[in-house]
């Protein structure tokens, strides 16, 4: 609690049964799941002017839907499927292999996704608060949350709820409510940050004829070693968008940043943009197919992979990922490899794959902050070690976390029980009713480029 803010003097803006902080992909799914069929008042607070977070403002691909390998299996579903089906009704949705052998990506037009999130949230009856920033939390003597203080264009105000879900990415609600967490970098090196960018006028056919991804990697290595272009790394990915002759990238690398420090984050934003245009010069200078290409868009903010990770009732570990762990309280599956963009070492991403292209369970307890009765987390602030987080932060998994905690919050109100006492069989039954996947299916998925649209 910020002692400088007198909560009793602030206007009460709204009261809800469930309040979700952060409208990224996890928060949107949490709000929809809490609201649908439950006759509950659900609010969703978001600092930007659009919903979707990184799914709309940074990236154009969902990962985590499928296990990697030659026999991919679909291990995520539910509200997630509805999101992609809506995207497919607006334009192309393309399944494409990951550059580094991870699972098949679901590539979409991120501007379409902004409209899709609008539609789904309005249809569900969620009360959205865009352009609204959490700034403080009011707690009771027992530590429970009495309300949150938000900043709007009209000043500060209080929103109260019976249950709270932190999907802020940076665990901002938990931070202000004095919930213990590990800050990225305190134990293991923090993952680097990435400003994504998009380019138009790319001759993709010419680029592929000249060698495609393998050729690009070779030219990046030569550029770094020769000093001709000061690229931050020798590897990176550029993939075709759903828009003709346009590409999207994950190549910029900004290291040694504590992304909850506003001054460090400011410098990272500036450095990320600087690097993006270094890449543009490199690509235009000597990469076949890019001679007439130009940057047409930068990510809405620099992409942050990890900051605060809350200590939950259970902490997902590297061993859980690498031993394909099973849990009785599973609420989602993950087959994504550990993808560690950590600072130091070679400067390149380190990969570790789940054995036998399998998928491990993620337990409900990782989504409940330790000892809390009124609060859940979902998304990249969930309870995991650095390594496990580097696997389970894929967007299909964060959306799956969101729908799990949204249902859990509704069940806790209907059963008048705490977050820790939500009956797991009922939660799992309701998740399965939504279409969530809690067992690895036998069927091999069709992941050819247009397969989703044909099945949508």
Written description of the protein model:
With 456 residues, this protein is an alpha+beta fold. The chain has 2 domains: 7-184 and 306-455, FAD/NAD(P)-binding domain (3-Layer(bba) Sandwich); 197-298. Helices cover 31% and strands 20% of the residues. The protein has 13 helices and 20 strands. It has helices at residues 25-35, 54-57, 79-90, 110-124, 172-176, 204-209, 212-226, 262-286, 318-322, 386-392, 395-414, 424-434, 451-455; strands at residues 12-21, 42-45, 61-62, 94-96, 105-107, 127-129, 133-139, 145-152, 155-166, 181-183, 197-200, 237-240, 247-250, 294-298, 308-310, 330-334, 338-340, 350-352, 360-363, 375-377. Strands 1, 2, 6, 7, 8, 9 and 20 form a 7-stranded mixed β-sheet that branches. It has a 4-stranded antiparallel β-sheet with strand order 12-13-11-14, covered by helices on one side. Strands 3-5-4 form a 3-stranded antiparallel β-sheet. Strand 1, helix 1 and strand 2 (42-45) form a beta-alpha-beta unit. The chain is globular and about 65 Å long. The mean pLDDT is 95.
């Amino acid at each position: 609690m910020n002692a400088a803010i007198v909560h009793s003097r602030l206007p009460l803006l709204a009261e809800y049964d469930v309040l979700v902080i952060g409208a990224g992909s996890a928060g949107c799914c949490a709000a929809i799941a809490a609201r649908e069929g439950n006759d509950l008042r659900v609010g969703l607070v978001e600092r930007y002017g659009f919903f979707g977070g990184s799914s709309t403002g940074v990236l154009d691909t969902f990962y985590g839907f499928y296990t990697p390998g030659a026999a991919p299996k679909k291990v995520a579903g539910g509200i997630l499927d509805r999101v992609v089906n809506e995207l497919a009704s607006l334009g192309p949705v393309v399944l494409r292999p990951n550059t580094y052998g991870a699972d098949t990506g679901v590539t979409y037009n991120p501007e379409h996704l902004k409209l899709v999130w609008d539609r789904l949230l309005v249809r569900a009856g969620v009360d959205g608060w865009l352009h609204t920033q959490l700034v403080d939390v009011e707690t009771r003597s027992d530590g429970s949350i009495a309300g949150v203080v938000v900043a709007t264009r009209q000043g500060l105000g209080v929103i109260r709820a019976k249950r709270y879900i932190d999907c802020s990415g940076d665990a901002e609600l938990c931070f202000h409510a004095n919930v213990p967490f590990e800050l990225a970098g305190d134990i293991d090196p923090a993952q680097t940050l990435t400003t994504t960018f998009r380019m138009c006028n790319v001759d993709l056919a010419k680029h592929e004829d000249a060698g495609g991804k393998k050729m690009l990697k070779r030219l990046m290595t030569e550029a770094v070693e020769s000093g001709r272009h000061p690229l931050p790394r020798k590897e990176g990915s550029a993939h075709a968008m759903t828009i003709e002759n346009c590409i999207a990238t994950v190549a910029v690398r900004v290291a040694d940043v504590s992304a909850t420090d506003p001054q460090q984050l400011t410098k990272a934003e500036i450095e990320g943009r600087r690097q993006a245009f270094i890449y543009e010069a490199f690509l235009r200078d000597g990469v076949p197919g890019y001679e007439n290409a130009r940057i047409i868009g930068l990510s809405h903010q620099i992409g942050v992979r990890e900051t605060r990770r809350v200590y939950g009732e259970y902490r997902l570990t590297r061993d859980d990922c690498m031993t394909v762990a099973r849990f009785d309280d599973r609420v989602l599956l993950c087959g994504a490899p550990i993808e560690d963009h950590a600072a130091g070492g070679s400067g390149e991403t380190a990969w570790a794959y789940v054995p036998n292209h399998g998928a491990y369970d993620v337990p409900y307890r990782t989504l409940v902050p330790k000892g809390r009765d009124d609060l859940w987390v979902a998304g990249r602030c969930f309870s995991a070690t650095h390594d496990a987080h580097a696997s389970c932060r894929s967007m299909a998994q964060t959306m799956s976390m969101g729908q799990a905690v949204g249902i859990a919050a509704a069940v806790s109100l209907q059963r008048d029980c705490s977050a820790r006492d939500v009956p797991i069989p009922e939660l799992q039954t309701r998740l399965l009713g939504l279409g969530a996947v809690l067992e690895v299916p036998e069927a091999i998925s069709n992941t050819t480029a247009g397969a989703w649209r044909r099945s949508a």
